[in-house]
Amino acid sequence: MNKLIRRSLLRHPVRTLLTIGSLAVALFLLCFLRSLVTTLEAGAAAANQQRLWVQSAVSLFVDLPLSYQGKIDGVDGVKGTCKWQWFGGYYRDQTNFFAQFAVDPEPLFAMWPEVEIAAGSKEAFLADKRACIVGEGLARQFGWKVGEAVPLIGALFQKADGSAWDFQIAAIYRAGRPTVDDRTFFFHWDYFEETMKEAMGETPQVGVFVIELEPGAAAPGVMASVDALFENGPQRVQTTTEAEFQRQFATMFGNVPRLISFIGGGVLLAILLACVNTMLMQAREQLREIGVMKALGFSDGAAALFLLSQSLLLVGTGGALGIGLALLTQRGIAGFLSRFFPGYAVQPLTLAAAIGVTAILGLLAGAVPARLAERTRTVEAMRPH
Amino acid sequence: MLVPLRYNFRSLLVRRSGTLLTVLGIAATVAILAGVLSLEAGFRTLFSESGREDLVVFLRPGSTNEGDSIWRRDVADRLVKTLPEIRRGADGRPLASRECYLAVLRTRIGGGKTNVPVRGVEPASFDIHGDGVRIVAGRRFRPGADEVIVGTKLVDRIRGCALGDVIQLNTTPLNVVGVFESEGPYTSEIWGDLDRMQAALVRPFPNRVIALLDPGTDVRALAKRLESDKETPAKAQTEREYLAAQTGALSATLLTLGGFLAVVMGLAAIFTATNTMLAAIASRTHEIGILLACGFRPLAVFLSFLGEALVLGLLGGALGCLIVVPLNGLETGATNFNTFTEVAFAFRVTPEVLAKAVIFSLVLGLLGGAAPAWRAARLAPVAALRRQ
Fold this sequence. Notes:
The structure holds two protein chains of two kinds.
Chain A: H1 2-10, H2 13-45, E1 51-56, H3 68-73, E2 78-86, E3 99-103, H4 105-111, E4 115-120, H5 122-127, E5 131-135, H6 136-142, E6 149-152, E7 165-175, E8 184-188, H7 189-200, E9 208-213, H8 219-229, E10 237-241, H9 242-251, H10 256-285, H11 287-295, H12 300-336, H13 348-375, H14 378-382
Parallel strand pairs in A: 3-8, 5-7
Antiparallel strand pairs in A: 1-9, 1-10, 2-3, 2-9, 4-7, 5-8, 6-7
Helix pairs in contact in A: 1-12, 2-9, 2-10, 2-12, 2-13, 10-12, 10-13, 12-13
Chain B: H1 5-14, H2 16-48, E1 55-59, H3 73-82, E2 96-107, E3 113-121, H4 124-129, E4 134-138, E5 147-151, H5 152-155, E6 166-169, E7 172-181, E8 190-193, H6 194-201, E9 208-212, H7 219-227, E10 235-238, H8 239-246, H9 248-283, H10 285-294, H11 298-324, E11 331-336, E12 341-346, H12 351-377, H13 381-386
Parallel strand pairs in B: 3-8, 5-7
Antiparallel strand pairs in B: 1-9, 1-10, 2-3, 2-9, 4-7, 5-8, 6-7, 11-12
Helix pairs in contact in B: 1-11, 2-9, 2-11, 2-12, 9-12, 11-12
């Protein structure tokens, strides 16, 4: 029986190949689209409960006074804080876009255990004020090595003499969790502050403060206390959990996730129709064989199973190819999309869903012809047409 | 002599289920391409068709949008006062307005945060825009008062943006006293008095200057002169050019996405169409034998089957267009990657979009039908006739 199923599918090798091909394409597309959505949500999903983010209540583009740090440190339940300031510079050419942040170096490691050193050392980064630590993805893109000097042009923050900012790579990190992007460039706040004081004559401001909670401290209480501290200005703040902070970037994409679901639905519908089409052709042509099978004593159920198995084998092969393709191309797509969808990855849950979809497609596409086979009367099937 | 097209239509009708399934598959593919294209068309139209040619936008040299253009106040003032090309109003004052601009964090009705642009403008702004900015409810804000007006597209999307509401910016509460309408992206913005907005946001600098120029001024020559000007260096462009430049990133993203989906899904649709045509030809081998024996040339048979595939594609394309047409005018929001602010715009199913969709469907039919039609044309009449 197994052999018969395989032989039946191979009777029209071109048709079988084309169907498998379109299935592979469709399943690949579904995995890809779903991964775009999960990538958008990954940061929020993996968020750390112990970290809170303090940003301006007015706008993401408004900075906070440096003096806020001491006041936040004094709030009950706050173990430590870390400054983050978006630098917005570029390397060699304006199109080389990646995120750079001036941060407090020690808290960076204390508060983000997921920043794992892959090359170089933490000590080297802490020891040198002009040192920076870069993500593996970034190092790969530009071919950077530990010890290399990297000049950045400050687009937002210009040095007094207008020259490039000098950095030296002290370490390369691996992102242990999706809360950290592997294409970020971190450097010392002190170097930033000193240079800006020289250039502007005043202390620079801070983009966001990140709070590390004391173990057991209640986040809502701390959030309310920090917000209340600056209720009367000069800049009101909004303290949120890390999940909430990350989510605001995902919601910026607006209706994009819904749009992607619509597209996914269209892909599914189109491919289901294609599979049903192929299986109906198979069934129509095999009517005679089914008659022969039944005449030989195979039951109606066996005849139905014969067609259903063909459908499952056909769809299963196409689906497996598509899912395999999604996994194989993961790296390349991640590199291509790194600007808008950093950290693109096919999640295990997406794979499981894709396998489920494949199985359902196989069953649905097989059901109609299987029913046809089951109902066909032996005599009718064998009558020459 | 060509095989009559009626033969193909009849054949498609006889094989109803196969035809229908293939047409639906092509329709889904075409609909998705057309949907993404009309999204892009809506976004692009909003920006590029609303810009004026006689209105000039001055940015700080080197910046690409008002979000990262920061003027020193004295330089902006000097530009407005001293540039001879700026047109004068009836009262003799220059028709120019310094504007501040900031994307502020607001809550969407229905949940989630988004960035809404707040724009501080000078009284001359209303004279400059004329009918381009119309109050549809309430009144204009009074100069120097803590009042704002909001674009129509914000009222139903952003919390606190209805007439009579209060918008809190940092420590300053601002009364919403009017709702305004405009053709361009301004309809997704909050407008207030320049000085009050700068005070509320604690940002004492303008982001851009807009001005009407004397008729006949050569904007390009002016731009070139200001580029290297010592006193008032600026990047000058017409409003149309400025707005068109703002659509780059999102348009490119949408077009890449649309193109990618079209190629990948198109591939699947071509496979399906080929399958259907192969099956059609296999079951009509006998007929093809008759056609050839009647004296139809292989070329005529080839064209006949290719035509049948084109009809399949066209039916799919027409159905796909029908699916997309109701989207026309549907409002949606998307982030403009240049300023990270959300703009509301509508899908626009333009004739151009539909034409592209139909051409795409014909290409799908053509590619799907070519190989099977070739096979049909190559059949030997005697062998074909022998087959049942």
